[in-house]
Design brief:
single chain; Trna Endonuclease, Chain: A, domain 1; about 30% helix; two-stranded antiparallel sheet; 5-stranded mixed beta sheet; alpha+beta; 3 helices; about 140 residues; 9 strands
């Protein structure tokens, strides 16, 4: 049986996501992180990020998007990052980081989300990252710029 166009589009989209997640893991490892891609088809109900990383006492949950000019991160996906860190990582909130990672070809933009916004219910309905944006998270230092 041949695949429909929609099925092959979905398969291509998943391969792009897998590729970007794998590239991010390698990038993190080069910077001294221990990192792993979480091989789960997410929009599941489990609060699992695309990539989990650790460096020193800090833990990072990454949501990864591949795009050509802009990437959208829905509120539900951002909430999953915080839920994962909050429920499953028993360390101080100062050592837990929810990070959006937008992959634009060779360019990466990282945006760390604010715990206070999540705790107070002030997360936006979606976050948009443009290719020309500057991120607020420095991968080399492992913290906000």
């Amino acid at each position: 049986m041949s695949k429909t166009r929609a099925e092959s589009d979905i398969q291509r989209w998943r391969k792009r996501g897998f590729y970007s997640e794998t590239v991010l893991v390698k990038k993190l490892e080069k910077q001294g992180y221990n990192a792993v891609r979480v091989p789960v088809s997410n929009p599941s109900r489990n609060p699992l990020p695309d990539v989990i990383a650790r460096r020193g006492e800090h833990v990072y949950a990454f949501e990864v998007k591949t795009a050509s000019y802009y990437a959208y991160f829905p509120k539900k996906q951002i909430e999953k990052l915080f839920s994962f860190l909050d429920q499953l990582i028993p360390i101080s909130p100062q050592c837990k980081h929810a990070v959006l990672a937008a992959h634009f070809g060779r360019r990466w933009i990282f945006r760390e989300m604010n715990w206070k916004d999540w705790e107070s219910g002030k997360l936006a309905e979606r976050e948009r990252v443009l290719k020309r944006d500057k991120g607020n998270f420095d991968l080399k230092r492992g913290k906000r710029k």
